[in-house]
Amino acid sequence: MFFTKNETTALQDEVIKKTLTDKDGKTLLYINITYPSFTLKDKNKLKQNAQPFYERSAKKFLHFAEGDLLDRAKKLSERDAFRPLGAVMKYTNAFEDKHMLSLYTEISVFDGVNAQNQLRSAQVWSKDKGYIYSFGDIFCTGTKEYLIERFSTEGNSGNLSAEEYKKCLKHFFNESNFYLTQKAAAFFYPAERLGGRQGLRVFYVDFGTLIEKKLLKVSV
After folding, report:
1. By residue range, what is the domain housing residue 121?
2. Are 86 and 30 in contact (CB under 8 A)?
3. CA distance 183 to 204
4. 202 and 146 Cβ atoms separated by less than 8 Å
5. Residues 179-205: pLDDT tens digits?
6. Residues 107 and 178 in one domain
């Protein structure tokens, strides 16, 4: 497997921006959604599969914002110290070449009381075949065990003992929570799962190390 940055992209941004108000014009909720659209021929397998995948995600998030979150904003707006609520979705093209596309999407919601909670999901697509690569498609047997051992020496906030931290790394490891960059594979956890605050904890492992330890498949 060779990773070389693509000079052109198959993506363009689709944007949904809304400011929702009450009958008196008071701002209740800001919505800002950006998701990928694919500048490919209609019969292209990647477009056929990935386009509806991200459209569904955006529509589902918009439905939540215009439904439950707006209802909450209406109730909270009666308070003197009310601040408009917010719903943000954005994606990042972490890596793209002729054969692969690695994206991650982040969601942040301000519910009027709590700090923004950041959630992330990621997909690595085959541009040729139009499907999402699994963890096992890219990494060899033994990779998870190596990663847990490696991560156990990194990023402990100090709120957990070394033993507890390692147990959490193992228990909450999600094989879907990874993406690729030009030089490394990135693996992420919700920070609170590892004794931290809201947000994300991201671990990077360079491809050279994975190749040296024979954990990265040379073809997919």
Report:
1. 1-133
2. yes
3. 9
4. no
5. 999 999 999 999 989 988 778 999 999
6. no
In three state form, how does the secondary structure of 9-52 look? CCEEEEEEEEEEECCCCCEEEEEEEEEEEECCCCCCHHHHHHHH
**Pairing state of beta strands 85-96 and 27-38?**
parallel
| H or E stretch covering 201 | strand 200-206
- Cβ–Cβ < 8 Å for 5, 97: yes
- Rounded Cα gap, residues 96 and 21, in angstroms: 39
155: how many CB neighbours lie within 10 A of its CB? 16
8 Å CB contact between 77 and 25: no
The pTM (predicted TM-score) of the whole model is 0.89
Q: Are residues 107 and 23 in the same domain?
A: yes
125 and 166 both lie in a single domain: no
Same domain for 74 and 5, yes or no, is yes
Confidence band (pLDDT; 50, 70, 90) for 61? very high
Say how many domains are in the chain: 2
Q: Looking at 133, 165, 189, which one is the last position of a domain?
A: 133
CB neighbours of 72 closer than 8 A, spacing ≥ 6?
A: 85, 111, 112
Structure tokens at 58: 């955006």
